[in-house]
Amino acid sequence: MNRNGLSMKYKRIDKTGDELSILGYGCMRYPRENGRINFEETKKQIRTAINNGVNYFDTAYMYPQSEEVLGKILSNGYREKVKIATKAHILRIKNIEDMKKVFQTQLKRLQTSYIDYYLLHDITLKDWENFKKMGVLSFLENEKRKGRIKNLGFSFHGNINNFKKILDGYDWDMTLIQYNYIDENYQVGEEGLEYASSKNVGIMIMEPLRGGMLINKLSKESKKLIEDFPIKKSPAEWALRWLWNDERIDVVISGMSSQEDIMENVSIASEVKPNSLNESELELINKLKKNFKDNVAVDCTGCGYCLPCPSGVDIPLSFSYYNDKKIFKRRIYYSVFYLLKTVENRSYASLCVKCGVCEKKCPQNIPIMKELDNVKSNLETWYYKLLYKTFKIVERIR
Ligand code: SF4
Ligand code: SF4
Which atom in ligand 2 lies closest to the alpha carbon of residue 307? Predict the structure, then answer.
């Protein structure tokens, strides 16, 4: 128990022998100020997490500056207290020389001589075949023998059939999958979770709050369901408790960006027990799930993998305002905000020329072009156009 009276729960991963905190720290979205990572705040938060028992940190070569910042923060005695998971994406690896360079860069950025969990990032079945052909798997196995990689795994956003094929194709140590109460039947879903569990690999969970949607995009009805429930908990707590109720899950990775988020999650992770939610609590979550599905327009997590768009469309932002408009039913209000955010830097939906580049990169398989048409018809209406013209006139006068 620490001085806050909290005692983080740990889980032993049979395949790797590690005792990992059930709460992992996601390093994709560090706190920012004026668009730049706020290093001092990030350092404070990461050290708070470690001092409260978090020992699993998930980063990736592709997350801008994430590895460098983590490496710098973990220097000065913190590296040995934690396990680092990082990833290599096929977008940066076209041959084995690229793989070697990426790996060397990662060790340097992270200021470490070894990686605890090394993952092939967001792979498809085709990527997996290509990685093998390029000799990437042999390279990683060799690094594992040398001790510079401790465990091998992969992260995945595709369908269940391909997930099973990749899992069956190698003796993996772990996998990282998207899972939360609205994704029980989405991507690999519950079936994938069960399959991974039957293979006895470590199971790490990403997007436990669906990129914040299970907090920020709850409808009035969902909020009321939570407020009226006799046991008082926040939307985040219900979502996390639902995951930790499942004993097949090892680590839930949360992208925490404030001290309050960290302490709330640490506190929940200190008291949860598998199979402890009762019938009425599970029923509440079922109702939230149904209400969410009925209300959200686009299942976008805001991950940004679809960017950059060659025409400059801010795809996640467009979907965020479109969802807000549908959930909160304030069309003019969200049109104005959408306008203010997208006109000045020319990033609105109607700039889309339907090249299709973004759709190939979206892990959620969102029909982006079709949904951007919906954004246009819902948010770029006559008052949008009027406001747009006014905005341009004001701009000229200034
Ligand atoms: S389809 Fe449209 S939104 Fe997607 S990358 Fe092409 S122009 Fe951008
Ligand atoms: S559209 Fe897809 S890739 Fe783009 S931010 Fe949303 S979920 Fe991510």
Answer: 4
